Amino acid sequence: MALKRGFSISGMNKNRRGRSRLRIVVVIFFCVLSPLIFFVGRGLYITSSSTNQNLNAAGSGKQQLNWRERLALQHVKSIFSKEVIDVITSSTADLGPLSLDSFRKNNLSASWKVTGVDNTSVEDNAASEVTMTHDCHALVESGAKYYVVCTIVFWVLLLFQRQTKKLPCSSMKHLMVETTTFLVDKILLPDIFIWFCLSANLVVFSLSPADDDSRSGDSPANLARRQLREKRREKRAAQLLRQDDEAIARLENAAIERSKLVDGAVLGKYSIWRKEMDNENSDSTVRLMRDQMIMARVYLTIAKMKSKFDLLQELQTWIKESQRVLADSSVDSDLNPSAPEKMKAMGQVLSRAREQLYDCKLVTGKLRAMLQTADEQVRSLKKQSTFLSQLAAKTVPNGIHCLSMRLTIDYYLLPLEKRKFPRSENLENPNLYHYALFSDNVLAASVVVNSTIVNAKDSSKHVFHLVTDKLNFGAMNMWFLLNPPRKATIHVENVDEFKWLNSSYCPVLRQLESAAMKEYYFKANHPTSLSSGSSNLKYRNPKYLSMLNHLRFYLPEVYPKLDKILFLDDDIVVQKDLTKLWSVDLHGKVNGAVETCGESFHRFDKYLNFSNPHIARNFDPNACGWAYGMNIFDLKVWKKKDITGIYHKWQNMNEDRVLWKLGTLPPGLITFYNLTHPLEKTWHVLGLGYNPSIDRSEIESAAVVHYNGNMKPWLELAMTKYRSYWTKYIKYDHPYLRNCNLSE
Fold first, then answer.
1. Would you identify the CATH topology of the domain 398-739?
2. What per-residue confidence (pLDDT) applies to 701?
């Protein structure tokens, strides 16, 4: 049996190995060739002297093998401990005894190549092994121990060459495999030594540090698998990056959508792209200079107390300089370029003042006094702000005033025959849908009428009863004569022409003429009123002086021939067809309205004075409030219950305003107590004039949206996020609107 061996080591650099090659040759000579020459010579001698014993060797092969094993075990015991031998024995219990044939069969080394022998025939190999000569066995057994020791020394030198980076890992492994092959093939060691050699190979391979050329022996299949794994990793990484990009894009889009909902009127008009928004501490210098001025004022007072006049004058000078530099600056970008120098100089003055004047008790007392003064100033400014915001909310914009004046002039230039509206026969037809709208704002009234007609299924069945004051009577008529609402019926009246509405019949008119009421309303003219403020500034509202606001309590008198009527405020927008409201069963109640109470607010105790026995005895403080703005009234039941009489009774009792403050909602809650039928909330959504956090879906699903509050949609105070619901029903290209500079 022949084995082909190769000692060639491909890919090694001759320059790197020049010095180590001589050492390897010397080691191989002493460890391999010398023992080989010795043992071969001795074997020839033994062979010539024992020719006659060859025939008996085959018959006693099994006995000789047992003798060899005993001899090998004697050598092994001197090398290995008992624990190692036990491990070897247990590892071969299932696989059978280790032999050269098992290694050749399993083809452990790529350098082994068997020619001319069928490796699958284990029995044949065993038979050939039995026929080995006794002389060869004796030769091997006598020199095996010496040869194994030399081989181990050779391997240690190879490992040292590898650790010093002088021998590539692949070359070292190749030399070790070739040495083991030679050992097994030519020397014919006992099985236990063969096992030892192969185990040592595996241990050295596992301990040898890997390098780049260790992969040179990878098979094409391993390379393909490695490339496939790398491709999968790259694909997964790209997929994760793409998912991150998509997530970031979604977050950015969501942030943009949320930013569109931010109202500038409420949160302040600002832009993150302004210069002062470049960093989060854009006002740090301004705040530091203000803090310096506060401490300078503290030391100024202490210097005056301790007669430090030089320091007093210096502090006064630098306080003025800081005030001049700060001016109206609120961010660092607005400061004068000399601000850092002024701030540094002020710091030096404060440092000297601290050394000369610092007294913990005095400084604490002065800071507390300054804090109390600032708190009082803030409260005063808040009252002034409240008064001014109320005033701004009740003023008429120049554009709307211009529109009213132009329309009024053109109306009175019309001939009498052209001042009449068509379809006047529908005004008292109870089978049609009638609306009551009381307003002195032409533009607001036009939005209410236009939005109702646009969303109505059949405009010819809708009748609008508009009531205004004499100042806006001509303008209201002229607008709807020029802009008729499709086939709907329009009728405009002047509240001042209602002769029955006088002070002898109406308690409100009588109270408005009293000296006490005039004092209450016009108290703001007092010099100290604006600075001192008042808890009821909200109720000093010009609309409370107009009977248009109280006319809602006289609907049967204004429209005596109607059975049902829908009352609308002029600050609402209709978004759906409202005809279904006339078919709502009110269950014998007078008023159909949407309730506004929550867990603890908008209940009766918010509007009425329950410390008064009349209120406490007749009403429940936890009763739910409701809203004016869109109310369906049953005028037949109204007349039966004498709702107007109930209103008069309680209005007379409140002449001194002890039951409620001014307004129409508190007397409405009292008048329609237990006579109000709650409607579904989708009919009427409120708060667009004061609440910036109303859900968009809630607004868009509502039949009517109400701009109750100070931020009316026709004012600059309006919240921009809600204004579009109102402006889309205005034609800003109308000549009158363009002439009065009215735009979105």
1. Spore Coat Polysaccharide Biosynthesis Protein SpsA; Chain A (3.90.550)
2. 94
